[in-house]
Amino acid sequence: VMVEDAYAYLSNWYYSAILELTYTDTFINEPRWISRSLGITVSEAKIAIERLIRLGLLVAEGETLKKTNRHLTNFTPGLTSSAHKEYQ
What we know:
The chain is mostly helical. 51% of the residues lie in helices and 9% in strands.
């Protein structure tokens, strides 16, 4: 997992929102639809989808995207990353 991808996921609210959108009945796997639904740019939606796939949090299944059961953690006793602090 690239550190930049993990940091972007943790520091931008819409990454989690995209994951949750995949559960809706009206979800359309199209960056323009996602951008309108969340009030973000098409570019932000495209980049987020690509990162979520690289992180293993989304998987492409045919024409749609599905949220995986994977979660990002970097727990090390006594150590909290700045990305986790910002996310919290």
